Amino acid sequence: MIWLMILLLCLTTACSPAKEVPKDEIVVGVFEPLNGIYGESGRETLRGVTLANERRPRALGKKVVLSVYNTKSQTFESANAVAILTDKGANGLIGTFGTDSMNQAKPAIAAAEVPALTGSTSPDLAKNYWITQISVDDVEQAKAMAQYAVEDLGLRDIALVIDAEMRYGAHLAYTFEHMVPTDVNIYKVYYHSGETRFRNEIDRLKKLPIDGIYCPGDAATSAYLLSALKKEMPDVAVMGADRWENPSFYEIAKDAAEGAYFTAHYARYDTFNAASETFHKAYEKKYGESPTSYAAIGYDAYNLFLDAAESAGSDAPEAVAKELRHLERFDGALGIADRRGPRRVPILKQYGKRGRYVETVEVPR
To answer: Which part of the chain is the Leucine-binding protein domain (predicted)?
Structure first.
């Protein structure tokens, strides 16, 4: 089905010639959801990209131009975005954070032979030649939270509450289950995407002898779960993943979110490098609020693409992709990333409207 979509797009775009980009411009294509259920994360990522572009508008003696495509929180739109942006002459892409969306885009990116940098946490992308992941992936997130749950929170009976239709949550839950020691009891409760009441799920959870819940779902659905848990199981520790950093998590859950733990990609007080501090101050000055991980991912993706182009001495897609594959270390807003070293995963705890940094867990690659 994906290949059929790509073929149709190729036939469609073949009817009109690709846009000729001025020789004194580098085009960076950005495809993110700017509205719909995942719009807040996409808008934050674009904020980070825009800030980076304003601070670094030129590379290789050329003006860097952003070309933006709104995927509208529709998974299939990612493949469309790749075809349209590359047809407009994009030298490189900054791709969406969505696991399913990037897996849809993957064949189109390979067909276009253009480098794409992404905040997607899908481990399926790790060895793709054309795709470079900026963020901590699902395996690393789940390893970190499993370690924190057992060693720091002292949990021994944990329920995994899993979205039956979302690959993102399934990846995280699977890894979490297989990373905890054998003396930790794991229980599983499934729900359907878009659930808001969780009556049946809460009834099942109340029958289990649990002291913790790990629910790596999207921000809105997880917030509804926490609202239900607060009333029925207020003393159970609740843990999640990176999407809980979105503002809608607190806006829906409100006080029920208080004290929830979740993994993130960025934490100001965990990343003491100069690039991170520069990013934080610049973001606050421009937008009047502190950045989220998604903004830091967008900021780093843009700068990493330009670093690779300048190191290669060329903005040709193949040259940039090759340079990205050889990259061993990057000093950015997310901290200092070492491709071969252990991954540092920040753990945040919800206090009021925002998550606050509590600890960093190091996990092997």
So the answer is: 25-343
Q: In this predicted model, what pLDDT tens digit does every residue of 311-344 receive, in sequence order?
A: 999 999 999 999 999 988 888 999 877 777 788 8
Domain ranges of the chain: 25-136+271-334, 139-264+347-363
CA gap 243, 33 in Å, rounded: 14
Q: How far apart are CA 70 and CA 72, in angstroms?
A: 5
Q: What is the domain class of 25-136+271-334 according to CATH?
A: alpha beta
Token digits for 153? 């929170």
Q: Which residues contact 281 (CB under 8 A, 6 or more apart)?
A: none
CATH match of 139-264+347-363 with 3.40.50.2300 = yes
pTM for the whole structure: 0.89
Which residues touch 149 (CB under 8 Å, ≥6 apart)? 155, 158, 180, 212, 214, 237, 239
Task: Give the model's pLDDT for residue 18.
Answer: 54
